[in-house]
Design brief:
By secondary structure, the chain is an alpha/beta fold. The protein has one domain: Rossmann fold. The protein has eight helices and seven strands. Strands 3-2-1-4-5-6-7 form a seven-stranded parallel beta sheet, with helices on both faces. The longest helix has 27 residues. It is globular, with a radius of gyration of 17 Å. The model has no long low-confidence stretch (mean pLDDT 97).
Length: 236
């Protein structure tokens, strides 16, 4: 029985844990060959093993997305082996310190914007030609509600996500008439992840949806197709 993403190539960032890891496993289960990136090699190896154990295929590529040169090298390596990239899931991000705007640390803010925004643009730039080479490419960026609805103490993280949303929608508009690349923004909502636990330390994770629930929604969107520029929130 054929799988919905058989023969497609996917790249998932922040794939060593949480939503990224769950999405990588879900895409692999549907037949995609998944390239896994994150800083932590051990976590990536565990996800790769899980994909292989389930009958899928994956390749790990440990790297720090804050290092712009590493993104270019990854794109070159992938382009040397494959003719197109069909799926790009931009999941990697850092939360930073939740603090009043007037007290945001400049160095941490710069680091946060480098990963949450600058690295995302670098990924789009590096993989643009490979995405255009696909007959049906899907780019999905993971956002947060605080990017659209600002909240006290979330200024730094929220600003990075608001900027990411704008970047992705601009790219969607640019690609609409000249390629088959479609772009969507996914707000996972309250999900039991390490980042969520850091932000809400007193919260019971058992009351939240699992990363797998978000991953299943993402995978279904890709398999079924979506209108470019779509923004969805994954409710419980």
């Amino acid at each position: 029985m054929s799988k919905s993403l058989e023969g497609r190539l996917a790249l998932v960032t922040g794939a060593s844990r949480g939503i990224g890891a769950a999405t990588a496993r879900a895409l692999g289960a549907e037949g995609a060959h998944v390239i896994l990136t994150a800083r932590t090699a051990k976590g990536l190896e565990e996800v790769e093993e899980a994909i292989h154990a389930a009958g899928g295929s994956a390749t790990i590529a440990p790297l720090d997305l804050a290092d712009g040169d590493s993104i270019g090298r990854l794109a070159q390596a992938i382009g040397g082996r494959w003719k197109a990239l069909d799926i790009l899931v931009l999941n990697a991000a850092m939360l930073g310190t939740l603090t009043p705007v007037a007290q945001i640390d400049a160095k941490e803010f710069s680091k946060l914007l480098t990963l949450n925004l600058g690295a995302q643009q670098a990924l789009l730039a590096a993989f643009d030609s490979l995405l255009r080479g696909s007959a049906d490419a899907a780019v999905l960026g993971i956002t947060s509600s605080v990017g659209a609805f600002p909240r006290a103490y979330w200024g730094a993280y929220g600003a990075s996500k608001a900027a990411l949303d704008t970047l992705l929608l601009a790219y969607a508009d640019e690609m609409a008439e000249i390629s088959k690349v479609k772009v969507a923004i996914v707000d996972p909502g309250a999900t039991a992840t390490t980042m969520r636990a850091k932000a809400f330390p007193g919260e019971d994770p058992a009351t939240l949806k699992s990363p797998e629930a978000v991953a299943d929604r993402i995978t279904a969107m890709i398999a079924e197709g979506f209108k470019t520029g779509t923004r969805i929130r994954v409710d419980a």
